[in-house]
Model the fold of this input.
Amino acid sequence: MMLQKLLLLSFLVFSIGLFGVLSRRHIVALLLSLELMFNSINLAIISVAWAHGWLAGVVVVLFGIAITVAEVAVGLSLFLLAERIRKTTQTDDLSMLKG
Amino acid sequence: MTDLLFWLFAALLVISALGVVLCRSLYRAVYCLASALIVTALFYLLLTTPLLAAVQILLYTGGVLTLVVFVIVMTAQTDDNRRWRKPVWAALLAIAVFIVLASHVGDLGVSPATGGLESGKDTGIELFRTYIVPFELLSVLLLAAIFGALVIARKEEGS
Done:
């Protein structure tokens, strides 16, 4: 029963984060929502690993956390660059690639 | 006892997650995210992986969120004035994704009454025996990310 409850909880947090990614306008707020989604995925992986006794799940989550750190560092520096060059913090104003 | 703790942590996690998405001030959103990450670390403790809980608090809450707060301090606009883009459609899509995910919860097998993970020592052995190549590749990735972040965010010469 515990596994089902944990999975439902992490899916709920994932959906909340998805709402944030789709609807927030500030780039940093979007990154924060992305972190939330990532965190809920980690929780789901650990729940399944815990229920079945898979040690590999712990290793996967450790790697995932390290990759997230790299992703956040690059994402934030891209945000600083966008702010300096385009003078904006809003995702709506970054539409250069829109056809 | 574990059941009570589960519901307490679950309520805290959902409230913090809603705070990240709904707060207008970015500072409040970051603090809500910190709370959500710490509650997740408590869940890791509940799931018998204290190593992950420590990594979560040290690396995630300590490292990443400090970085985010520094960047917010450097930006001019820290509030979302126009708040959401198409919130109704985004909420509908999020609810649809939740329903699809939740309908597959049963596919992952019935869990035993009490699971468990041999943590700490065994995790270290697994990490440095079976997964040594990905581990080393990860250090290369981190180095590349540091260089990338420095090059992207640096000021141009003379500007």
